[in-house]
């Protein structure tokens, strides 16, 4: 036991001390807020520096009116399209909006001319205003007062409430559940791949540099393998913890700092004033908060940690076995496939089946079988999973982990001392069968 | 110290060891000889409990081999290996602790050895920044750091320059003087005669010969004498092919059934005998002779 602890310590310390670990750990969480910050900053700077853009509007219908904003001014004229185009070419106008005479029931032929491509927000602003005016006009022609339409417009939101056997009601929301399942599943998937590979690399390093012969003369191969797997798990958990802390604080700082200026909202107002108003009312936000507070966090966090570690240990042992069987990382490819396939199946299944229909038969089996359950079950947990299913899945994962570790131990023990031969599956099977 | 009885090991159809018996007494340097692929490494790995034998017993200090004996053995494998990115000090500490030393003990020992072999200034260097010879020294210290009563060295001198090989040789002799039993496995026979008290020869999975150096050498005596003569009084027989250098004649003669004194008497008739010495076969010659004779008989 003491010796496993020594191996764990070495694996952990030697990795955490590396400069690359420090860089990746500290920079990754910085990247997202940094990108966000840069975008916001650019948007703000651009808005401030931009000169007023004048757009020439030639409306052959004499129907439309466009309100000028801080950025854009609209100048209506009776100029001919050629004259207006000349204005743009000469640089006197930012753009020219041509609304030819059209049938109000089938409007078409509206064009925007500009020296550069107009922004999405400008185009959608123009489209929205024109559409609204046309709709109003058509309502008017049908004899309906547009005001009535505004009054009649209603918003319907269904509150989804789960009832358990004791009659406790919990407000849930498919979107929130989706996001939790999505994030948790992806995290586990990435963690298994990244750190599984580290285990494999570590084993190959010890094997190819022949350190392993000295190590196994001091401790059992199984202790060495387990120590490595656990040590690297520690590295991963450390990284995850730092990320959570850093991302948490950074997003709070960034959003807090820039929150007052919120240029997105301005852009939205320009594009679609109604949507911005809807958001401003904040009723939806309130609902989401209620949903978030209704989630069974204890269960989700517990499940996450369990499947996170369970899945890692199950696959980690397999990665260690692969590393022990080959001489160089390039030889590992042939054995990677059977390990990668269930992981990818679980990952695909998460999006195709589980997040869309968490209780379907496919979702059920994916979340029960140990090779796919770490990713699949996390997609289901936030939707609520019957206790027996969770217990079965976890129980099988433990058994699965014990099994792969046992198999991996058998391969590892022989593989690490084999040099110069490229074993196939047949050879691996022989190793599993041999007793020492 | 180490006793091995009827040890067998095979890999599939290949026999690596066939009924090997060995007895290594305490405080000796024991040479394990044989060509590459003879089974030496397999034997060593079994003693180190890296692999298990198919049948047969290994005893250490009279006890059947058990996991606790790991700490009594220091093992230097033929293929050396260190963590390239680890510092000398950390590396030694890790190996020492894996062999069961406490952190405190280990640090004292490492300090002692680093000073003894004048490596103090390297302790914070990474292995990848050391020369091959330096890394070999680190490896050697890592092997003996826990004062093992049994030291198993597989080709210990390969990769050392003559100066460092001499240092290591002296360390081995010093350890022997302190009572350490050393098993030296090599296919280079010439290093054996200098260091070993006893040897065993292994060829094609079988032990073909063992005993003290003197006994092993007595098994195969070609009974050939090296002779130099001068002041010749009589023409030498033409069948004695000799080399003449300013009146001194050197040649070799087999006893051919005569006693050494008879041969000497005969030689004295031809002139002044300056040298009359039995040619002792090298370990290499003994080995080749033994391999041939076991294969023929």
From TrEMBL, chain A:
One of its GO terms (cellular component) is plasma membrane. It holds the Pfam family ABC2_membrane_3. Keywords: Cell membrane, Membrane, Transmembrane, Transmembrane helix. It is found in: Cell membrane. Residues 19-408 form the ABC-2 type transporter transmembrane domain. The chain crosses the membrane at residues 21-44, 178-199, 211-234, 240-260, 300-323, 335-355, 362-381, 387-408. InterPro entries: ABC-2_transporter_component (IPR051449), ABC2_TM (IPR013525). Gene3D superfamilies: Periplasmic binding protein-like II. It is a multi-pass membrane protein. One of its GO terms (molecular function) is ABC-type transporter activity. This is ABC-2 type transport system permease protein.
From TrEMBL, chain B:
It holds the Pfam family DrrA1-3_C. Keywords: ATP-binding, Nodulation, Nucleotide-binding, Transport. InterPro entries: AAA+_ATPase, ABC_transporter-like_ATP-bd, ABC_transporter-like_CS, ABC_transporter_ATP-binding, DrrA1/2-like_C, P-loop_NTPase. SMART domains: AAA. Signal peptide: none annotated. Transmembrane segments: none annotated. Residues 2-229 form the ABC transporter domain. One of its GO terms (molecular function) is ATP hydrolysis activity. Belongs to the ABC transporter superfamily. This is ABC-2 type transport system ATP-binding protein. It comes from Algoriphagus chordae. The lineage of its organism: Bacteria, Pseudomonadati, Bacteroidota, Cytophagia, Cytophagales.
